[in-house]
Hints:
The protein is about 40% helix and about 20% strand. Helix 5 (about 160-170) runs parallel beside helix 7 (about 210-225) and helix 6 (about 180-185) packs across helix 8. The chain is of the alpha/beta class.
Amino acid sequence: MKILGIETSCDETAAAVVEDGSRILSSVVASQVAVHHPYGGVVPELASRKHIEAIVAVVEEALEKAGLRTDQMDAVAATRGPGLVGALLVGFNFAKAFAYARAIPWTGVDHLEAHIYSVFFGDEVPGLPYAALLVSGGHTSIYHVKNHCEMTRLGETLDDAAGEAFDKVAKMLGLGYPGGNVISELAERGRPGKIQFPRAYMDKAAFAFSFSGLKTAVNRFIQTHPENYHELIPDIAAEFQAAVIEVLVYKLMRAAEKTGCRDIALVGGVAANRKLREELAKAAKDAGLTLFTPSIDLCGDNAAMIAGLGYHLLKDGDKSPEDLSADVYSRAARG
Ligand code: KG4
Ligand code: ZN
């Protein structure tokens, strides 16, 4: 079954063709980073307009790369939420219209569940159930995944998401937007521990996260060292990154222990962070667990994960009704 996937929840217009939930025939991602860069963050109205401009060309490119025509698509899957509602509506309504015109089934996919599904494109895949850490620009949560469409959220961030903290710290240091990648590159040259920032474990037995105190600590350091903080940027980046990673690794390992899962997964935009992958792989090895991560190109927002999970939803008979609309909340929050 060949599924056309569409993703427009934030600042990437993406389309992909995936066969039987696992074979990626094409995956096209058009980033709007250059559009939002001058503003230091995503401007929702601009995002919606850019999705409208890009969606047709991105879908055409995905079909062309897959070597397929529109009439060879068996179904369509589009991100339903969570995300920016104006942005979501573009891809979601495009998908509905596409399916209606071709008289094929379509389904709305939860963006967070799709990120979690992104580990199922590898040669080795986790056994069910597994514990997953989702770290992106909008979310930081831990899940107990029973199957592709049934998962329990064990905890989430009480304030900023991990990626958001990377982006905000990068902004404070004048490193531009988005900042995750820049911070991680600078951190490679820095000395963690040279400057000390706090680790926010919250309740060590629970799965809540908080990154706002860490962000404030970085800001305070900048304010109190106006004359020399510039030279210390790699050290600031390394210690900030170490503080985030330590807590993320600890909580995912705790989740595996609590749920008894032997397989764990790291997904979302921040999963592209080399140091985080490395530290988690070490911790997993020490505990005798197996870590699964998506390839780097599947960590950030993409439509292959939408088409992949969409396949399983459609197979389970989850054809969305014509009047289903986009939703800014995650399926878990919808109840
Ligand atoms: O999953 P994603 O593409 O979009 C959302 O659904 O939010 O995640 C984007 C986030 C941004 O905050 C970006 O700074 C962060 O992922 N990110 C990274 C790295 N690459 C991207 N954070 C830390 N280290 C990286 N290498
Ligand atoms: Zn995402």
